[in-house]
Each structure stands twice: as structure tokens, then as C-alpha cells.
Amino acid sequence: MGYVAVDKLKQGMVLDESVYDINSRLLLSKGQKISQNHVRVLKIWGVSRVSVIGKEKEEDEETPSVDDKNTKLIKESINVLYKNADLTNPIFKQIYISALVHRLKGTFGSLPEQTPKNRMGGTDLKKPEKIRRQIDVTDIKLPEAPTVISELNQVIDDPLTTSNDVAQVVNKSPSLAAMLLKIVNSAYYGFPSKIDRISRAVTIIGTKEISGLALGICVMQAFKDIPEGVLNIKAFMRHSLVCGMISRILAANNNMPQTEQMFVSGLLHDIGKLIVHKYYPNHAKACMELGASSDRSIFQTEKMVLGLNHQQIAKLLLSKWKLPNEIITNIIYHHEPGKAPDPKKSGIIHIADIISHGLGIGSSGERSIPKVDHPLVDEIVNSRDSIKLVIRQIVHQFGPMDAIFSD
């Protein structure tokens, strides 16, 4: 007996234990021979691994033997990134090893995509008080919500909403409808036949889930016009996307319903940074440069430069746009999940952010992650094998989704 990641299952393998969904409904019975259709069903329901007969324990990942000029840079980058993490902790040790392995392999690129190098000529970064340009909460500029977001919020809040109600709202935005159809037809969901109507997608995936997913896409699209000289928006989007995907996987692994809500929360976790970069680019530059010169995280330098952090700014925006309260709280506590009303949900975003940075997919501008909530991490991820499974799933799923969001 042994556990196998769903994406590693082969036809003919036999289940050693029955498999249940998040609502304890039986999906596959013990003794069932695995078919390709079974793999698709397991992926749809968020099952990450199953126990099969005759499978030996998986071996630990081996660090590739790489000896070139990038190896030192990769190790130094990861060491700076995780300097606030306790690497004697088995879970973080595995996150570190997996990050190193995949960067050395070049799975997603050896180093994270960089944000633009901003230079503030003549600024003495050793004296942060000289660059303190604090903004008052009442002065923060916030964009108005696109009309479709207001309508989607109403749909989400209405318990009597039908799939047709959601489809009617989504179809008012051709670009949003096209994006959702690309997603549901991607290998990420693995449906065997083409889905060509939003109403059918809603029926299959779920009203709340598809409307939440649409909401996340709308919000991110509102910031696509940030100039490349201010922020590498493509790198930022890739980091946000993989954080959302890992959040969804971790939620499924913890038997949470509404995994798409966790995807949206992960996708939007750094939305406050986009506000700063779009409306206060000089402040954003100061935060990034102070972080680079002092090895502080941007989360830390924001308080010094702005007087508040991107979580607080996110709360202002998302509340103004009347997004669901659960999504708001998941996001605003993702650096301090222990203070959240639901620590486990914010903790999932916290862990997903940490793993995303380690793998080096895209960039949020951070060089080192802020303080880690180790007890909560241990509660959500109970073994080193769990981390390896999550990363294997991301390796398998990220390509199709990345292609969709990069269009």
C-alpha cells in the first residue's frame, strides 16, 4: 500500500482505500481499477492523492547536480527569501528543498522574474525617514468597480441564484465570458468534451464557484494597464495565479468546500500592491528600494514609507467594491493568519504565497517573505509528502492556466 499523486496515476492501478469527496460522498470504492475517466473525476473534486495496492513509498526528491554560475545565485536567492523561516521545521525544510530542486531543474525558470529596477537618485535609503512619504487613508485613490463586479456581487449574495442568472451577468462582458470558457476547457479541469456555454460551465462547476472565479478575473483585469516601467505586471500576474492555484489545492487537501473561493482569495492576495503601484508609483519605488537595500520584506517597508501596508489598502478597495466578506478577510490577514476570524483560510493563502515565492514563478516584488506563522502551517500541511504532492500538482496544472492568463 502507498499513496500516489492523482496526476501520477496509471490505468489499471487498484485502489487500496475508498475515495470520498469533501462532503464525504463516495467517489470510488476500494478495489476499483483506475481508468482515465476516474483520474478526471478525482481532479474535478480536488482529490490530490489516493492509496493504491502495491505502491512503494515515494523517494525523496534529489537535488540535481548542477555546477554553473547560476547555482550560487539560486541558493543565495532562496536563502534570502526564507531567512524568516525556521528551516529546522520539517515542513519548511521540504518547501526549501522543493524550491531549490525545481529552480535548479529550471521547471519554471531558475530565478523569479524581476520587477523593474527603480532608482531614486540621491535618496539615502539608510535613513528611511528621509523617504517617508506617508499617505493618509482618506487620501487613497481607489478605482470604481466595473459594472459587472457589482452585478456579480448581487448574484453571489442571492441564495436563489441559478446558473442562468450567473451566465447572463458574465455574458455582458465578452472578454470575461471568453476567459471563463478557456479556463473550464483547459487541462486544469480536464472535461472530456468541449463546454461552449457559460450556463453549462456554471452548472458543472457550481454557481458560487464560477461567479467567484469571474469576480477574481474582473478585478485583476482592472489593473492590466499598469506601465511595465512601474511594475512587471506579467510577472505579478503569474505569481498571483500560482498563489491562487496552490490555495485551491491546499483547500481541497483540507476538505474545505468552495475551493474556488480560495482560488480567488489567492489570486487577489496582493491586490493592495497594485493600488500602490498604479496610483502612488513613487511610494512603491521607495518601498522596493528600501527592501532591497535592507533585506526587509516589502510588507515591512510599507509601514515605514506609506504608514500602512498593502493588506490595509486591499481592505479599503475590496470593501468599496463590496466583495464577499470571506474573500476580504482571507486576503487582509494572509501575512498574519493567526489574527483572522478564520485562521485556517488565511493560513492557506499564507502558505500558498510562501510556496509560490519559493518556486520562483513570477514576482510580487518581494525578496524575502515576512514572518511565518509556523504553528498554523503545521496544522494545514501535516507532512513533507503533502508539500511534494502540492508542488507536483502545480507542475502539472500551471502550464494550461498560465497560457490562458498570458493571452
Automatic annotation (TrEMBL):
<dbReference type="InterPro" id="IPR013976">
    <property type="entry name" value="HDOD"/>
</dbReference>
<dbReference type="GO" id="GO:0016787">
    <property type="term" value="F:hydrolase activity"/>
</dbReference>
<dbReference type="InterPro" id="IPR003607">
    <property type="entry name" value="HD/PDEase_dom"/>
</dbReference>
<dbReference type="Pfam" id="PF08668">
    <property type="entry name" value="HDOD"/>
</dbReference>
<feature type="domain" description="HDOD">
    <location>
        <begin position="142"/>
        <end position="337"/>
    </location>
</feature>
<dbReference type="InterPro" id="IPR052340">
    <property type="entry name" value="RNase_Y/CdgJ"/>
</dbReference>
<keyword id="KW-0378">Hydrolase</keyword>
<protein>
    <submittedName>
        <fullName>Phosphohydrolase</fullName>
    </submittedName>
</protein>
